[in-house]
């Protein structure tokens, strides 16, 4: 076992004790967890476990949001769906890959010296429950649940409700702070912001997004340097003419704002895990003024079909690469970098 990597059993015990003492529901897991294979989190209200890798086969049972599932094998099913035929063999059956997030269990050393402007950090456990302190009531209450690979701005270290060090997180959208166990976050070192291919002239870099193929390609002077499947915006059958469209707009754009962490959603302070609050969306590169961006995704893996409310969803490692490769260049410690940047062509 690597240093600072906790066992699945220890993590479940830690979460179970912590949530139990704070009157939360227990951490729900597959009965075979720890029996080998990779671990995935259910990233939607529920998923069905089928007898075969085929959604026409009998449903054996359900798994629910934030339960952890042991995956033994990845299967390419001849029954599709064609855009994403990846299924996972789990205990007694198969689950389609669309709404499962691959996760890890890693704890981290607590860093006490946090600069005044804050440090970016990423969650390195399946999820962690944040809390805020209500001084007028002298009590702690739960707020958002933060998920693996999401990123957040750490602005300090304080004693949490369990007496251990918790990082203070600042929410850039709602301008308030809350706390999470410090060992559940990894402070991202400055070198992970280092620009990729800085020797290439900015105007030679182009991002091409094909809605028809659900694919993104990055070019340097006409040469392909990265290709990824994506999920663009879904269509509305009867859109409200006063609302923001959910389809990804087509045309030529330029990245104008980059934020390594962004709170997206309805902008509510809530502990409801079913609320539309995507806290800590990682490595966000905005290219349309209405809020359309290329960004990392921790709530689905359904690449190849529209899934978003207008943005271009990509795997988080791809979003991070694009964030570092494009302009304007975002330095460590910068919460938002604005500027006239890389060309994005959507068609």
TrEMBL record:
User: Tell me, what is one Gene Ontology molecular-function annotation carried by this entry?
Assistant: transferase activity
Catalytic residues identified in the record: 295 (proton donor/acceptor), 311 (nucleophile)
Q: Where on the tree of life does the source sit, at the highest rank?
A: Bacteria
Residues forming the L,D-TPase catalytic domain are 205-347
One cellular component term (GO) for this entry is: extracellular region
Q: Where are the transmembrane segments?
A: none
SUPFAM superfamilies this protein is in? L,D-transpeptidase catalytic domain-like (SSF141523)
Organism source for this protein?
Anaerolinea thermophila (strain DSM 14523 / JCM 11388 / NBRC 100420 / UNI-1)
Q: Which GO terms describe its biological process?
A: cell wall organization; peptidoglycan-protein cross-linking; regulation of cell shape
Q: Which UniProt keywords apply?
A: Cell shape, Cell wall biogenesis/degradation, Peptidoglycan synthesis, Transferase
Taxonomy of origin reads: Bacteria, Bacillati, Chloroflexota, Anaerolineae, Anaerolineales
Q: In which pathway does it act?
A: Cell wall biogenesis; peptidoglycan biosynthesis
Q: Which PANTHER family match?
A: L,D-TRANSPEPTIDASE, L,D-TRANSPEPTIDASE YCIB-RELATED
Q: Which CDD domains match?
A: YkuD_like
Q: What is this protein called?
A: L,D-TPase catalytic domain-containing protein
Task: Name the Pfam families on file.
Answer: YkuD
């Amino acid at each position: 076992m690597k240093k600072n990597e906790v066992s699945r059993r220890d993590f479940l015990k830690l979460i179970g004790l912590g949530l139990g003492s704070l009157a939360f529901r227990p951490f729900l897991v597959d009965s075979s967890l720890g029996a080998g294979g990779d671990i995935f989190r259910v990233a939607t209200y529920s998923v069905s476990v089928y007898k075969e890798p085929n959604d026409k086969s009998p449903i054996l049972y359900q798994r629910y949001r934030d339960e952890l599932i042991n995956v033994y094998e990845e299967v390419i099913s001849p029954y599709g769906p064609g855009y994403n035929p990846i299924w996972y063999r789990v205990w007694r059956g198969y689950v389609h890959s669309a709404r499962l997030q691959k996760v890890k269990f890693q704890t981290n050393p607590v860093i006490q010296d946090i600069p005044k402007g804050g440090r970016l950090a990423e969650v390195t456990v399946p999820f962690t429950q944040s809390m805020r302190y209500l001084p007028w009531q002298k009590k702690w209450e739960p707020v958002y649940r933060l998920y693996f690979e999401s990123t957040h701005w750490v602005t300090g270290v304080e004693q949490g409700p369990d007496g251990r060090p918790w990082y203070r997180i600042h929410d850039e959208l709602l301008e308030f702070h809350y706390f999470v166990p410090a060992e559940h976050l990894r402070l991202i070192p400055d070198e992970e912001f280092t620009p990729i291919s800085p020797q290439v002239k900015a105007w030679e870099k182009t991002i091409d997004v094909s809605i028809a193929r659900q694919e993104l390609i990055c070019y340097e002077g006409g040469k392909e340097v990265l290709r990824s499947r994506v999920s663009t915006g879904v269509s509305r059958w009867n859109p409200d003419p006063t609302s923001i469209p959910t389809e990804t707009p087509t045309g030529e754009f330029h990245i104008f704002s980059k934020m390594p962490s962004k709170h997206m959603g309805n902008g509510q302070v809530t502990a409801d895990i079913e609320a539309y609050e995507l806290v800590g969306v990682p490595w966000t590169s905005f290219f349309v003024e209405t809020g359309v961006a290329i960004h990392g995704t921790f709530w689905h893996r359904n690449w190849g079909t529209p899934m978003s409310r207008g943005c271009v969803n990509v795997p988080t490692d791809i979003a991070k690469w694009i964030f570092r490769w494009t302009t304007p260049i975002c330095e460590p410690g910068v919460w938002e970098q604005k500027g006239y940047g890389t060309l994005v062509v959507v068609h």
